[in-house]
């Protein structure tokens, strides 16, 4: 999320026409088209964050600026040449790293929260097993995972929460 992404079409010589057909999970479809004979481009229902990216190594690729969850979905590039039609399909999935917070609740129990991640983060405790887990789904398709230790090993001066997510892994320690 927040980065730019470039999706390349099949590199072919003598392109007559090229079309990006975009079907996001949220909102309606969008199309970007290019005709070589008139050297014109056309766009239908596409946001300003989606544009052609012309580079010698990529050919007419698609650039998505500041990718967000709304851009998740299927992206199909169709290249028309005298040799035939060629397709490349991308399934864009957007990762949202969770915000980690670790604190002590009113009863002195450590609480580890991985807020607003996509997909949901996995939360565990180092050297501790007695914990409860809660998940809260949000309207923007992110999930907050909250883990609360219900009993602590008294031989340890600090407790470590570990958060695992495709966007990265984090750990933090606290003594309650």
From TrEMBL:
It is found in: Membrane. It comes from the Eukaryota. Its main location: membrane. GO terms for biological process: regulation of neuroinflammatory response. SUPFAM superfamilies: Immunoglobulin. It is a single-pass membrane protein. The lineage of its organism: Eukaryota, Metazoa, Chordata, Craniata, Vertebrata. One of its GO terms (molecular function) is signaling receptor activity. The gene is Cd200r1a_1. GO terms for cellular component: external side of plasma membrane. PANTHER family: CELL SURFACE GLYCOPROTEIN CD200 RECEPTOR 2, CELL SURFACE GLYCOPROTEIN OX2 RECEPTOR PRECURSOR. This is MOR1A protein. InterPro entries: CD200R, Ig-like_dom_sf, Ig-like_fold. Keywords: Disulfide bond, Glycoprotein, Membrane, Transmembrane, Transmembrane helix.
